[in-house]
Amino acid sequence: MDADPGAAEAGREYDARPYLPSGGGMRGLRQAAAGCRGCPLFRDATQTVFGSGPAHARLMLVGEQPGDQEDLRGEPFVGPAGRLLRKALDEAGLADEGAYLTNVVKHFKFTVAPRGKRRIHKAPSLRETTACRPWLVEELRLVAPDVLVVLGGTAGKALLGSSFRVGEQRGVLLPMPALDGGRDGSAPGQLLATVHPSAVLRSEDRDAAFAGLVADLSVAATALD
Predict the structure, then answer these.
(1) b/e per residue, 18-35, with b = 16+ CB within 10 A?
(2) How many domains does one find in the chain?
């Protein structure tokens, strides 16, 4: 689809919708996302990091954005936070569920450390998450999971609104929100919010934080039984 790759740079509204394909299923969506220029984040990122997993998984997990290793490898949740997440899924009894993993934002946003070349994660802005949200809406529509697990505040706000707080709503099964203005961008099923695995890695009491993540994911496992 033709689109203006200089739109974001020219100060126009950030928006991925002009890059969405008219069809082609998950494969077509993935291919189209590789050329997304809906916001400026594509300029510094190595590549688009799209979702990964079975196209019709019963369990779908969505985080904030790819990190350094994800950006280099082109796959979501392959860095330290991803390894911890997989361990938590295993302990919650979800290792064999074949989850679909993705992020709200598909490009790595970072700053470079003052000394050296280490790239430091930087949280995406509201404009960036809003611009990238159409990709997530389409992923959710195509996967149509029974349970959607929202990892952290950025993902939660993208799906549930700016009032979302992880601490207030974690570990509780909620109805799947209506997306895309209430049209068919929504999916049947339930939503469960929990902390992002990176928050566990940053926690002063990592064991307790990890146990909390496992407990939340166990609620999702029960819902899938």
Answers:
(1) ebbeeeeebeebbebbee
(2) 1
